[in-house]
């Protein structure tokens, strides 16, 4: 893509970190097993007899960021060994899910969608259904505590099938079964290159028949063919990451696929810090999210994995303000985009925008 980002980032001086933390936020792309508290990993690993690289929470947090910053998506994914090791029991799932909701609320998030793969959490003897029910119980406890503290957050769940395995149809069945119990959609995750989304077409066709929305990781480690297949063959309503849609944009002119994505308002779940770690982007200033926003794409801002990337929504927003010249209006745009593209009913999205998000930005504009 030859369309350039803004040449001279402008700093919105009244948007310091605390001001940004207070802004209402919405996150659509965040993995439960990538967002644990370091201290929780240490405590649960000790109880499970699992060996960690270090038992110091601060050192463990630094280890995650360093290991994930290799520029290699496969190594990035491998860092999940230790978080998954402590999410194999009812106790571990309840605690991590409850803390997930509380951590979002503390970061000013008012709506979040958390995704995880139930099939990766059955080594302790839980069934797929028990994993989902337990996570929902933990999230409900966290949301209740956040509301009682005056920082309400709504968290919906996306169930992930692992694209390199063969249980995606089972997980799709779970998404259908739990759609009235907090599960709002479906995704496939895992190594993208070499595992095309159409390999799981039966799962996506089943979800369409049952009117369950889904997103697909595409356009991160693999390019336009992955995005095209996710949209035009599998029927995804959103795209996870999608940074390589820029390969279909030359001198600001959109190709057919890029035009389809923009014109149909297909949300791109963009994760700047994560994309830097995996080598999908060179810097925050040069990350495609800014150019795509300016071209009118429905971009959304996300954390992907808060522990692994050492980030929060406040940090992602702050980086874009400081290094890419974003303003409060830009932050409002991506937040509104996220709420509009959430996998919850239209009237609930409208109420969230009208009553929470838009009023929350009035003083910042």
UniProtKB/TrEMBL annotation:
Catalyzes the hydrolytic deamination of adenosine and 2-deoxyadenosine. It is an enzyme of class 3 (hydrolase). SUPFAM superfamilies: Metallo-dependent hydrolases. Zn(2+) binds at residues 29, 31, 217, 304. Its cofactor is Zn(2+). The active site is at 220 (proton donor). Belongs to the metallo-dependent hydrolases superfamily. Adenosine and AMP deaminases family. Adenosine deaminase subfamily. The record marks 241 as: Important for catalytic activity. The keyword NADP does not apply. Substrate binds at residues 31, 33, 190. This is Adenosine deaminase. GO terms for biological process: adenosine catabolic process; hypoxanthine salvage; inosine biosynthetic process; nucleotide metabolic process; purine ribonucleoside monophosphate biosynthetic process. GO terms for cellular component: cytosol. Keywords: Hydrolase, Metal-binding, Nucleotide metabolism, Zinc. Residues 24-356 form the Adenosine deaminase domain. Its EC number is 3.5.4.4. Binds 1 zinc ion per subunit. CDD domains: ADA. It catalyses: 2'-deoxyadenosine + H2O + H(+) = 2'-deoxyinosine + NH4(+); adenosine + H2O + H(+) = inosine + NH4(+). GO terms for molecular function: adenosine deaminase activity; zinc ion binding. PANTHER family: ADENOSINE DEAMINASE (PTHR11409).
């Amino acid at each position: 893509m030859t369309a350039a980002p803004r040449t001279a980032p402008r700093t919105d001086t009244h948007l310091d970190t605390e001001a940004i933390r207070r802004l209402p936020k919405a996150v659509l792309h965040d993995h439960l097993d990538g967002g644990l508290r370091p201290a929780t990993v240490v405590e649960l690993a000790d109880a499970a007899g699992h060996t960690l690289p270090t038992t110091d929470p601060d050192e463990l947090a630094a280890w995650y960021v360093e290991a994930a910053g290799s520029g290699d998506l496969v190594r990035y994914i491998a860092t999940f060994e230790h978080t998954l090791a402590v999410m194999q029991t009812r106790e571990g799932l309840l605690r991590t899910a409850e803390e997930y909701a509380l951590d979002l609320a503390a970061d000013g998030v008012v709506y979040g969608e958390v995704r995880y793969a139930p099939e990766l959490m059955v080594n302790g003897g839980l069934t797929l259904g028990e994993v989902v029910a337990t996570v929902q119980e933990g999230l409900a406890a966290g949301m209740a505590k956040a509301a009682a503290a005056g920082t309400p957050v709504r968290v919906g769940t996306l169930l992930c099938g692992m694209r390199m395995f063969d249980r995606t149809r089972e997980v799709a069945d779970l998404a259908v079964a739990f759609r009235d119990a907090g599960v709002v959609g479906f995704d496939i995750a895992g190594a993208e290159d070499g595992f095309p989304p159409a390999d799981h077409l039966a799962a996506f066709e089943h979800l369409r028949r049952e009117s369950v929305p889904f997103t697909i990781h595409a356009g991160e480690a693999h390019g336009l063919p992955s995005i095209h297949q996710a949209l035009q063959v599998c029927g995804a309503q959103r795209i996870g990451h999608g940074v390589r849609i820029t390969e279909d944009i030359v001198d600001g002119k959109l190709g057919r696929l890029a035009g389809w994505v923009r014109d149909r308002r297909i949300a791109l779940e963009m994760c700047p810090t994560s994309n830097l770690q995996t080598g999908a982007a060179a810097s925050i200033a040069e990350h495609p999210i800014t150019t795509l926003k300016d071209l009118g794409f429905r971009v959304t801002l996300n954390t992907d994995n808060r522990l692994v990337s050492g980030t929060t929504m406040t940090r992602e927003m702050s980086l874009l303000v400081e290094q890419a010249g974003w303003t409060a209006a830009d932050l409002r745009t991506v937040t509104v985009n996220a709420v509009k593209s959430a996998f919850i009913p239209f009237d609930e999205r409208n109420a969230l925008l009208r009553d929470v998000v838009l009023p929350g930005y009035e003083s910042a504009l």
